[in-house]
């Protein structure tokens, strides 16, 4: 195979690795947004609910009707992404996809390195062959002219 063939394969694998890297870079902020930003919102909501339930509890004591209402307020607390089953599935799915893409990227980079090495070997062989052809032509020219 010629050096052009290996160089084309090298470029294809290099491009493929870049594509996987770009996909990974698109997914990471999504995962971060789902886990971190949602956690901040949940913590803010829960903090407000805790504050309000404590205020409510301290203002009305020894009344079961109001105690039940305070219990209902605390039941309204939001789940964090790690404890919310649906969000946990989303986060897990994103992590799985990132891991899959990381493996494909690593394979594409390894293939790219391999083909670049093959390209260099083929290029050197072509250079050596061209040098032999030049020597042969020069010898033929010199032997025919003498």
Could you explain how this protein is built, in words?
- With 146 residues, the protein is mainly α.
- The chain has one domain.
- It contains three helices and no strands.
- The longest helix has 61 residues, at 85-145.
- It is rod-shaped, with a radius of gyration of 34 Å.
- The mean pLDDT is 82.
The percent of residues in helical segments reads over 70%
- What does the radius of gyration come to? 34 Å
Q: Could you spell the SSE succession in H and E letters?
A: HHH
Terminal residue distance: 38 Å
How many helical stretches?
3
Q: Structural class, please?
A: mainly alpha
- Number of spatially distinct domains: 1
- The geometry reads as rod-shaped
Proportion of strand residues:
under 5%
Number of strands: 0
Largest sheet: none
């Amino acid at each position: 195979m010629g050096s052009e063939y290996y160089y084309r394969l090298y470029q294809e694998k290099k491009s493929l690795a870049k594509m996987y890297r770009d996909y990974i870079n698109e997914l990471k902020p999504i995962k971060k947004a789902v886990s971190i930003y949602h956690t901040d919102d949940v913590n803010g909501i829960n903090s407000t609910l805790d504050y309000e339930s404590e205020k409510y509890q301290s203002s009305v004591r020894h009344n079961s009707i109001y105690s039940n209402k305070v219990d209902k307020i605390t039941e309204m607390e939001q789940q964090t992404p790690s404890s919310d089953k649906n969000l946990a599935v989303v986060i897990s799915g994103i992590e799985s996809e990132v891991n899959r893409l990381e493996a494909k990227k690593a394979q594409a980079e390894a293939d790219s390195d391999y083909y670049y090495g093959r390209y260099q070997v083929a290029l050197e062989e072509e250079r050596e062959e061209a040098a032999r052809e030049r020597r042969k032509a020069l010898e033929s020219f010199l032997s025919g002219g003498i």
